[in-house]
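Format notes (please read before filing issues)

Several people have asked whether sequences and structure tokens are stored in separate files. They are not. Every record keeps both together, in the order shown below: the sequence lines, then the token lines. Line labels are part of the format and must not be stripped during preprocessing.
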Amino acid sequence: MLFKPDEKGAGAVKRARASVARRLVSITITLLILGGLGYIGWMAMQQKQQQGNRFARPDLPVPVLAASPVIKDVPVYLDGVGAVRALNTVTVRSQVDGKLIAVNFVEGQDVKQGDVLAEIDPAIYQAQYDQAVAKKAQDEAQLANQKLDLARYEQLAASSAGSKQQADTQRAVVAQQQALIKADQAAIDNAAATLSYTKIVAPISGRAGLRQVDQGNIIRASDATGLVVITQLQPIAVQFSLPQQQIMRVNAAAAKGQLAVDVFGNDGVTVIDTGTLRGIDNQVDQTTGTLKLKAEFPNARFQLWPGQFVNVRLKVETLPQAITVPTSAVQRGPAGTFSYVIGEGDVASAHPVTVVQQNESEAVIASGLSPSDRVVTTGFANLADGVKVVIGRAEQTPQADLAPRKRGRSPQTKDQTKDQTKEGGAAPDGTAKDGEHRRRPQGDGQSGQAGSAGAPPPPQAGGEQGRGARPQP
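Then the structure lines:
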């Protein structure tokens, strides 16, 4: 007996094969699409790179500026911030009470030691002085009489006509009177000193401040404000601070001799005065971790003023025969500091360098460079190790514009403006050929009513009126 194949099984196999074929076709199409998109993206990136490097010429040398290291003695400074202090400040007060009858100084005047600044009414103190002088004269007259009596008593005692006791008593009276005269002289000196206090003199040389008491007032020795404050300006002191890490360095330098101190002006660059270090504090300020130092300056031009904040630098040593380069020649990379050295064939190569110190203008190189080298100072934008360079001159350094330059129209913009003017009769900004400003129609083809009387209506399509036609009355 013959068996027929199952028709249902054959149909399922056919459908499975068809499904697999469709999947293969879909996968193939998807891969083709992705490949096409990837190729399009790669082509776009290549075009951008070519467009970006259109003006680059890798075969041309990079323009740079170069300099050679210089050997010289370089001073080492420690920078600090300080305040100006007067060496001496005195509040002038009266030592006696009385009426102020004269003021002999002007506010802000330079006075010298011993100058009479003010005067107090001396009448009372002059009377006391005269009284002491008169008292001494009276006692001296009594002393002269007592000395004569003593001589008589001694003669009588010698001839046994008088008692020795009486002579001894008279001798004691004379000695007592002599002591009294000495006391009178002390009273005279006291009265003379008190009288001299009526003239208030300058105890130091300096600059007088603002007057605190006016003429005619009663001043007393117990007044706290005083008459005036005198401040010594020449010489003057500056008190500044340095980090506590520099204590050993400063002490070692101070042991060798006096240290020079410079004070900078308001610009922080110009040195306005140079002085010497006078003192170092004996302890560190624990709140700030700094050490206070005091320097003295001649202040010949009065550029330093008490209370002024200044920048200070202390010279601690000098590096002899050090190799220096411009600060711009020192570059920093992941491995540290380096400089581009121009070798044979004007090829720049990076050399690691060790910097001892540097400031805004120059850097001191400990190792890595020699005086015969040439280092790049400007033009690092396109510079790399092994790139050929061309060395320019210092005057070729590009300068920045002080103000933006006026921008001109490109030829394409000018052509578009001409075409629009020819077609529409007006420029893009709405200006007509004859210089009059056109009005835009408002509403459905109606001209605006807010314009000036007699303004021409916009031209209508198919009308017989020209552009310059005016409305009929």
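For reference, the curators noted about this record: Residues 2 and 27 are 43 Å apart (CA to CA). The first helix runs from residue 7 to 52.
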